[in-house]
Fold:
Amino acid sequence: MTAENDEDLVRAVRSGKKDAFAQLVNRRKEFVYGVLMRLTADPQVAEELAHETFVRAYRRLDGFRGESRFSTWLIQIAINLARDRVRERGREREVSLEAMLERDPESPALKENRSYYDPLAEVSERHLMERFEAAVRELPHSYREVFVLRHIEDISYEEIAAATGDSVGSLKVRAHRARKLLKERLFPETESASSLEVAE
Amino acid sequence: MESLFARYFDGDLDDQEARDFLDKVGSDPGLERELRAYERVLALGKEAPRPGVPRGLAERVLAELDSEAQPERSRRIPWPFQLRWANLAAAAAVVVLAYIGGWLVGRNMSLVHRTSREAELATTSTVYYSPELSAQAAAAGTDLRYVRLSYVPLDPSVERVSVAGSFNSWDPDATPLLRRNGVWITILVLHPGSYEYMFVENSEHWVTDPHAAKTRDDGFGGKNAVLDVGL
Structure:
């Protein structure tokens, strides 16, 4: 069978066409796994949580009321699983660059993080992308979450708010802090002398 | 300026505010460099490739849902995956019979490699039984269990690793492991029971899991690892 969109497939599953869910999984697995991979930075955990996301989505499909896009509803499940995992681990690396910057801009750890940066070097695009991915992984989870959803997956703040339960204002603050941390990590020569002025 | 940068990139400045902001940035080389750096960060986000999806992810999801009822209404359409586990169980039964009869000629030939290689290996492997997922499966009315197998060959140049066992007709090509940061992994979805298995490197070297909690003589001078699932 072919369907126009996710919502058509959801209706098909509800009407008894269980194979329509296979299409939903195949259609959305890259999106779900991609987000979870960036949120967890662990291929095994991302795979496990992606698996669980789809299983839960199927079991709770009657809870999808069409008030948001199916993809938003789906990613809400994935985000909550990732947040639960972070809480369970209790090992979220809040040794963030932001914390180091606020504490001591000349801290050895920060210098170490920047040590590979050579402003005179001609950095290849590939190398820059690798550094970008590494810097995203280093963000505190709450910043990484909104940056990934807004600036990598291109999801609107309103949809992210619907998925996470956070306010749009709070999301924008975190997105800005994420952008600022990434900018300072990747392009430290442009670092602003001003401190963060956006209150959460 | 900090909040102006934030509002600019979130599209929250009106036209006049945006013009004033860009005029100010344009008159200050430092601010202009900062603006370009922010833009580069956002461009990298747009260009970042999506991570590749592990092979078999969708199949494993659908296999788990195989035995579940429809989320709503009755299941009127045959689920294409319903036969998978029934077929697997039948295949396993046939394998057991064949095994007793000594029909696995091809496998016996491979065992010659295995026993000599075993002594050389100091591999690390783990069998992780996921009680959380399995409990959820049980709560949903299915007895399927999840078992993650991981394996680290001593030789890092190994190009393929698979697991062959009583759950896949001892087919060395049926269940490949995926390499993740040097660790080969797969997740098995199994009904409760006792299974035997071996790792297979490059489709030819059969290796007993060196960290198996239990092994069983295979009748040919070697040992199979034993995996007790949810017993």
User: Anything to note?
Assistant: Confidence is low (pLDDT under 50) at residues 91-123, 193-200 of chain A. Chain A touches chain B through 61 residues (CB under 8 Å). The CA atoms of residues 37 and 46 of chain A lie 5 Å apart.
